Amino acid sequence: MLILGIESSCDETAAAVVEDGRRVLSSVIASQIDSHKIYGGVVPEIASRLHSEAIVGVVREALAQSGRALPDMDAIAVTYAPGLIGALLVGVNFAKGLALSSGLPLVPVHHLRGHVASNYLTSPQLAPPFLCLVVSGGHSHIVQVEDYTRLKILGRTRDDAAGEAFDKAARAMGIPYPGGVELDKIAEGGDPTAYPLPRPRVAGAPLDYSFSGLKTAVLNTLNNARQKGQEVSVPDLCASYRAAVVRSLVETFLKAAEQTGAKKLAVAGGVSANRLLRRELSRLCKETGRELFLPDLSLCGDNAAMIASQGYYEYRAGCVAGTGLNAYANVSLDMDFRDVKGEGRR
User: Domain 128-298 is classified in which CATH homologous superfamily?
Assistant: First the structure.
């Protein structure tokens, strides 16, 4: 079964063709980083306009690279939530038009479910049930993947997401956009013990995250140094901050694994590319006898291959939308699309 995937939830316009949810035939991404860099972050209106300009060419290129044509597809999968609403609408409306003109089924895919599915593309042997840490710029979740389309949230951030916390701290340190990626690189040359930072906890919710305190601690460190006329070692502060965030992510994730008895663990989302996070989880899973699945670096960020992969499983579960499909800025990943629409599950 061939699925054409379309992704436009933030600042990448992407299209891909995936076979049977596991084999990538093509994956094309048009990045907007250069356009947003001068503003220090993603500007929603600019993102929407650039998606509109790029989407036709990106889809054409994905089909061409796959060696297949649109009539060869079995369905079209598109990200419908969550994300920047204007950006999402570009992809959703384009996919609706393409599905209507071609007669192909239209499959709505939750962006975070797509991130989870990136592991199916990297590790074809992976199958539910397993535990997944979903960490990106806007989300930090511990998810129990009970089946391909049945997911349960065990823990989540109460404030900033891990990726957001990295980006904000990087900006405070004067690191250019995209800050989290650059912070990770700089941290490789720093001392992670140079700056003591707090270990955040959420009272009464041991599987939830909180990163706003860590971000504030970095801001206070920088402000105090400026007031005293002292120099701050950016590599050391990057390394200390990264270590604190990763420690929080890993400790809580493994606590969830112990509570659930999970032996298969996976990571997904943009922050899954973080070097220290990958090293620490690999080390600790080896020590505790757990199997760890990590997406290829090319699949950590937003892409359409993961949407096509998850779309395959959503389609098999009977999740198909009509021309009334809308985009949603916020939808929990444990909600079935038919529940979002108030139709219930079939």
Answer: ATPase, nucleotide binding domain (3.30.420.40)
